[in-house]
Structure formats: C-alpha cells, structure tokens
Amino acid sequence: MIAAKKTIAVLPGDGVGPEVTREALKVLDAVAARTGLQFECIQGLVGGAAIDCCGEGLPEETLRICEDSDAIFLGAVGGPRWDDLPLEQRPESALLAIRRMSGCYANLRPIRLHPSLADRVPLKNNLVSQGVDIIIVRELMHGLYYGPRGRRPAQEGGEEAFDTAVYPVAAVEQVARLGFEIASRRRKHLVSMDKSNILETSRLWREVVARVASEYRDVTVRHQLIDSGAMLLMLQPSEFDVILVNNEFGDIISDEVSVLAGSLGMIPSASMGPRAPFFYEPTHGSAPDIAGRGIANPIGAILTAAMMLRYSFALENEARMIEAAVDATLAAGHRTPDIAGPSDTAISTSEMGSLIACAAT
Q1: Which of 141, 158, 260, 342 is the most exposed place for a label (fewest CB within 10 A)?
Q2: What is the pLDDT of residues 192-206, one digit of tens each?
Q3: Nearest-CA neighbor of 105 among 250, 256, 316?
Q4: Catalytic residue among 145, 146, 188, 327, which?
Q5: 51 φ, ψ (degrees, to nearest 5)
Q6: Eight-class DSSP state of 142
Q7: Contacts by 235-240 with C-beta closer than 8 Å and gap 24+?
Q8: Per annotation, catalytic residue among 52, 68, 163, 255
Q9: How far is CA 148 from CA 151, 162, 167, 201, 256, in A?
Q10: What gap in Å lies between CA 83 and CA 78, rounded to an integer?
Q11: Is 6 among the residues known to form the active site?
Q12: Using one digit for the tens of pLDDT, what is the confidence trace for 133-192?
C-alpha cells in the first residue's frame, strides 16, 4: 500500500537557503522513489525574498501554504541588505511568526560528530575520541526574547533599556516532558542547564524539571549551572546525551556546541509544537558571503529533512536511510569546502547532494 501523500511547505528563503533546500529535496525524491512515498512540495516566499517581492517577510499566501501543510521546511532567512529595517520588519521576524502560528514551543538540535570529521573539530582529539552525540532541547516561546522590553528614562538621568524574562510553570513542564521523552528513547541521560544560583526564573525551572523527572524513573537527570555546563561541553562532550535548556541559554549553547560537529553546515534543527505543522530548518543561517557560489554545505538541510520524516511523518526507517546515506558519503571522503582538510578535494553543494541522494537509493 502506498502511504498517503505528505504536503510540505517549502520556503527556500535567502542567501544559501535556496541552494541547500534544492539538495534536501533531491534526497527526499530519492527516498520517495525507493519507498513509494509521495511528497507534495509547495513553495512559498519568506524573509528577504518576500520583502523584496511583496513588501513583507511573511506574505498571507505563504502563511496559508504553511497552515495547510503537514510540515514546514525552510532554507534560511536574512542578510545585510535588510539589516537597516526596523526590527519587526526584518526577515527574521517571519521565523517568529511561523513558530507562533504552529505553536512551536521547543527546538531540537542534534549535534553529532561523524568519526571521519574528528580532525575538523577545534578540540584536541582525545576530547572527542569517544564520539559526540548530543541533542539540545531548547524552550522556544518564553524568556527574554518574548517578555516585555523597551527603553525608559533612567533614575540617574539619561536612558536605560530593559528586557524581561517570564516563565510559566506550564511552559517549563511542557518542554521538560519532551526532553525526558527524547532521553528515554536515547541513552537515558538528561542534563538540565540553568542559572538557579542567581535567577528566579531558573529556580522555578529547576523545581519544575525535578518534579517532571519523577515521572521518568529510567532517565538519569543532572542539574547544571549554565556557565560551568558550557565549560564541561568543551571538556567532556562525549558525556552529554540530552541537554534541556531555556530559550536564551539554548540560543547560546547550541551555537557553542555546533563546533563539535565539524561545521555549522552539518547541523539540522526542528521546532516542535502541540500540533502540526512542525517547523524544520538547518542552523547555518543565510551565509550571504557564500550565496550563489555553489560551495555551501547541504548536509544540515539534508539531515533536517530526515528529522522531518522522523518527527512529522513517523517514518523512522526512511529517516535512517537519509542519515545512513550521509554517513556513507562522508566515510567515502567526500567534502564540501567547510569540512575539507588540506589534502581533500572539495566538491560543490550540488555534487554533495547528488552523492547523498545516490547513496539513499
């Protein structure tokens, strides 16, 4: 029996977004041809491309495409040409709007080091010799990025700025349960990072996570201050499995840990909500300095497609097909410029996508 057709809202976006998205779709097509799956990909404008065409980062037509889809796949948004726009009009505001539309309360960011790329990590080999396989679960809808903010007269004269972090108990419970569910299906170890020695929101965070932990007896939980945790991630990366963290800390930690994969271009990402569609995007950003040159690494986007198969469509075997194809291609020595060593011959974005698609068939 052929599975029901899955509708994907495809938003290539800006910079290298269209280039890496093209390769991710190429690999999806290869998996579909092998398995009989059917994907209907409907493209929409978003970010700077939408601003240039329609005057806004998330046009109504694109929003409708997203609302009617089973999953949303985005390439990248943003670039210096739009940096002078007011904050609420910049391309990145479209991402927040899409996340709000689908209620995405958590971001999942897997960080895995392929053995053949160990020499591309800026750490001594003995620190990564045991492998790196981490998934960061970041709360996405609260904290400093969403609380009241502004500027006001300061008591001592002049002006001051303020940002406010607010965390409801229900929001922490929701993301904590997701973190523990993921840990229970992996190596059963979760580290919750906070700043509970200083911040009241972190004290609440730690209390709620400890309470939720009692529901998952098979998962070992450790509470870690964010500053010492950041240090341990560089000294003992192999010791980490699932990291649970709030919005602003997660934003910083996830970029720090990205160096453990060999390149930011290697890292996929999924934003989850209580209902479909979930939102998928690689983490490398629009990289306008290399856009159009055919040298962007498409692996982050391709692995993001694998996450989409796993989390939106419950197609675990097909997700593993893509991940195995990536592993085989890297093991064969193929490299884009960002992960190429001095003796490697770098290949293009499209060549890497074609090799992975071939390995997936």
Answers
A1: 342
A2: 999 999 999 999 999
A3: 250
A4: 145
A5: -60, -45
A6: S
A7: 235/127, 236/127, 237/123, 237/127, 237/128, 237/132, 237/134, 238/127, 238/128, 238/129, 238/130, 238/131, 238/132, 240/134, 240/189, 240/191
A8: 255
A9: 10, 8, 12, 15, 27
A10: 8
A11: no
A12: 999 999 999 999 889 999 999 999 999 999 999 999 999 999 999 999 999 999 999 999
> With bands split at pLDDT 50, 70 and 90, how would you rate the model's confidence at 1?
very low
* 255 labelled catalytic: yes
Do residues 61 and 67 lie in contact, with contact meaning Cβ atoms separated by under 8 Å?
A: no
* Class in CATH terms, 122-261: alpha beta
In the predicted model, what is the mean pLDDT of residues 17-45?
A: 97
Catalytic residue chosen out of the listed positions 29, 146, 195, 344: 195
Please confirm, yes or no, whether 145 is among the known catalytic residues. Answer: yes
Query: In sequence order, what are the beta bridge partners of 151?
Result: 161
Would residue 194 show up in a list of annotated catalytic residues for this protein? no
Distant-in-sequence, close-in-space partners of 172: CB < 8 Å, separation ≥ 6:
139, 204, 205, 208, 209
> Angle, nearest 10°, between helix axes 349-360 and 316-331?
120
CATH class of the 1-105+267-361 domain in this structure:
alpha beta
Domain ranges of the chain: 1-105+267-361, 122-261
In single-letter form, the type of residue at position 206 comes to R
Q: Is 26 a catalytic residue?
A: no
Enter the tokens of residue 221: 């939980």
Give me the catalytic one of 29, 133, 146, 251. 251
Our CA dihedral for 290, 62, 98, 46, rounded to 10 degrees, sits at: 20
Neighbours of 154 (CB within 10 A): 10
Q: State the DSSP H helix or E strand holding residue 161, giving kind and residue range, or none if neither.
A: strand 159-163
Q: Which residues pair with 39 in a beta bridge?
A: 6
Write down the pTM of the prediction: 0.93
Topology alike, domains 1-105+267-361 and 122-261: yes
